[in-house]
Amino acid sequence: MNEVKLTRPKVEKLRYQPNKRSYYLALLAILFNVVNLFTVINSTSVIPTFQIGVKILLNIIMLLIVFLGMEKMKVYNKRWGVIVMLIGVLAFARIFWMPMNISEWSTDSREQAELLLEKEVPTEQEIKQANQLKSKAEEYDRVQVRSIVFLSITGTLLILSGLDAFQKSSKLEAYLKEV
Asked: Do the beta carbons of residue 36 and residue 158 sit within 8 Å?
């Protein structure tokens, strides 16, 4: 993102106007994160596990922190710009956690399908079940790609939001020291 070019009158206006760009970028990031969470959870047609509960809890905590950061960035708080950027980096790191679990589900479904078809003469029921497992694996692959895309967008938006807030807050802080 290019350096925010602000003239002296524009910096003066920052004192009286909220930082809407950072706010709306973070709000959009929250939206993409929620869509990702529901995409992943709805793809798991399995019994809810402790791991899924932990993912939901961590998402709720992250959303609350980002929401607080949005409110603080709206009033040009530089520290919260940095915190939101760090959460954006964390969103990118989550790509190696959530979608990789989905990859394991896909692999397990394919392996189960292969086991059913290993017999010399699989029954019609086993062939049908194997085909269902293969289609489930393909669905998991699609969910994995969507999850990577949504988490990437979330991370990018949070980093841009925090960077914008940090730059504007720094300019406003420098201006206020002059005055």
From this structure: no
